[in-house]
Amino acid sequence: MINQIIINILIDSSCYILVAISFMLIYQICHFFHFAHGIILAAGAYLAFLFKMHYDLPISISMLFAILLSALLGCLIEILFYRPLKKRDSQHLILLLVSLGIYIVIENTISILWGNSLKVIRFRDIEEGMKVFNAYITPPQLAMVIASIVISGFAAFVLKKTKIGYMMRAVASDEKLANITGIDSRSILFFAFAIGSGIVALSGILLSLDVGMTPHMGMVPMIMAIVVMMIGGIGNIAGIILGSVLLSSLQNIGAWYFGIQWQETIAFMVLIIILLNRPQGLLGSKAKVKF
Amino acid sequence: MEYLLHILIMICIYVILAQSLNLVIGYTGIISIAHAAFYGIGAYTVALMSLKLGTPFSLNMVCAITLSGLCGALIGVPSARLKGDSFVVITFGFQIITFSILNNCVALTGGPMGLPGIPRPDIFGWRISSHYEFLILAVLLTGVIFLVSRRITESPFGRILKAIREDEMFAIAAGKDVAMCKILVFIISSSMAAVAGAIYAYYISYIDPTSFTINESIFIISLVIIGGAGSLWGPVVGAVVLVILPELLRFVGIPSSLTANLRQILYGGLLVVFMIWRPQGLVGEYGFQFEKTKK
Lengths: 291, 295
Fold this sequence. Notes:
The complex is a heterodimer of chains A (291) and B (295).
Chain A: H1 2-30, H2 37-54, H3 59-87, H4 92-114, E1 130-132, E2 135-137, H5 139-161, H6 163-173, H7 175-180, H8 185-211, H9 219-232, H10 237-258, H11 263-277
Antiparallel strand pairs in A: 1-2
Chain B: H1 2-27, H2 35-53, H3 57-81, H4 84-104, H5 106-109, E1 115-116, E2 122-123, E3 126-127, H6 131-153, H7 156-166, H8 168-173, H9 178-204, E4 206-207, H10 214-227, H11 234-252, H12 256-277
Antiparallel strand pairs in B: 1-4, 2-3
């Protein structure tokens, strides 16, 4: 019993880590909540569905194409909508509302094209999950755990040690100063959108392989990712990992005692408590408090 | 004729919702995605009270307003401490939590199956049963809300709200109790939304959680933005435009399975278009353009 809770915590936090890291990559650099991120999650899943079920491509090729196309979609949104607004020095509120509008439009486009009912990607027969330490885990869930470990490690490495990570941190810290020193903040932003959208599309695909997809599937994971990011502290991969584990632990243990419907309530209680007492997040630095 | 009356009643409900949200977004400059939650709290309170307790319309309305106002205070308190971006997440959270409670507490709220058979309102002997009488009720309440909004926005309190919108730091420096004003505006705004919820519940006589989702919150935001933030007639214009336009789609010959989605694409798309080209909306005053105190 306990083992299953632990495995569930592992799976849930992997999902949060993936979405939160991708969200943070974008948020760090553009400083507003890109709510359309949630719909790229769903778009990734539905594109994989399209390639696998309609065009009958093998599952790995479908996933690859879906991720690439979703990264492209994220970049398109940035170029078409955010870039012209930023040129005019728009307030973050405007960008937030635009991203909400984009979310609604794309969600309903998906709904028109594929319908609202739960869709699944069939690529193998339904079988029992694998037994690990007396608890069950299914292959998509295992893939999500592995992906989160790989991607968080890779992201931490890139951000700390490589030149492009260095440039991203510079733009995140002070865009104008970075531009003066010769870093092209616009291409860094473009890059962040591409990578962030790709990662969240991957998590959408894995999530849909686990529980299926609906057009609305991206909203709650995205909100949870924002909560995790704010709990853990922005700009801090370790903070996101800590926040994810903390949040999914509280949610799973809470679900055990109070029932699964209180999951989101627990998340926001935790968020409010942490925001009111430590607005920079658990592992964030005071200097970064923009709230 | 019934169809026309239905459209007019829905316009009234959305005018009330947009007016109340306009106080928060248009006058105080705070984005709140929780408004469908207050709408839902009002509707469910009225429905539950009249179904389970059989209490009269006026008592139900008062209770709905009070409960919604208390929840508004609940949201207002963090708003005093947190800045714009993170506060939006809190309002998002409140919306999700409220929807969760409405959808999952089957014993109390009927869960996804909703509450059917809400009895017709009986206001001191005037039994409302036809669409025409509902329209009269709706128009009366909308007029009251409009007058209340006008009183608020043209009062010193309204000026403080506009000051908060333009430059909060300056308002605090000038000695205004910004925190209390923010809490107050949320209480007022959520109470008004409850009135809309009450009309909706009595009129349709069946409510379920799907009418009070995030998408509905975003729709109310679009009403405010497209009509025009920060002006009294903006919400009215917004509600008229955004209720009538999708209805026109029906006559163009689009299959009915698509109309709900197309309606959402319409208001989502208009929201994006207006934010890019005319952020002050059709008749609004506030274009979100003024840069707040630079960091």
